[in-house]
Amino acid sequence: MWRGAGPDTAFLIGGAEGLDPTLLRQGGGALEPGPLTLPHELARVVVAEQLYRAATILAGHRTTRRA
Questions:
Q1: Rounded to the nearest 5°, which phi and psi values hold at 38?
Q2: Residue 39 in contact with residue 46, Cβ under 8 Å?
Q3: Under DSSP, is residue 9 helix (H, G, I), strand (E, B) or coil?
Q4: Secondary element (H or E) of residue 26
Q5: What is the mean pLDDT of residues 7-18?
Q6: Phi and psi at residue 18, in whole multiples of 5°?
Q7: CA 43, CA 51: separation in Å to the nearest integer?
Q8: What is the largest CA-CA distance in the chain?
Q9: E strand or H helix at 48, and its extent?
Q10: Over the stretch 16-67, which tens digit does the pLDDT of each residue have?
């Protein structure tokens, strides 16, 4: 959806109370990992892992190993 379709994308990670409503209104959308509250360090790892996974799938790489 976003890939190659417009301006750069930025990810903001909010605190336990989320992001300021003004930021949410100015942004083009919001993603939530579900009803979880993650430490900032873990949230960054989860986002990075999902972006990496998406990039490898789009590039046609195998995502699972078979024994």
A1: -110, 145
A2: no
A3: coil
A4: helix 21-26
A5: 81
A6: 90, -160
A7: 12
A8: 50
A9: helix 40-58
A10: 777 888 988 888 788 877 777 788 889 889 889 988 998 898 888 876 666 5
Q: Which amino acid is at 42?
A: L
Helix, strand, or coil here: 15? strand
For residue 37, the model assigns a pLDDT of: 77
Instruction: Write out the two tokens for 67.
Output: 């024994």
CATH topology of domain 1-67: Alpha/beta knot (3.40.1280)
C-alpha distances out from residue 9 to 5, 63, 67, Å: 10, 24, 38
Give dist(CA 14, CA 12) in Å, integer.
Answer: 6
Instruction: Count CB neighbours of 43 within 10 A.
Output: 16
What residue type is 22 in one-letter code?
A: T
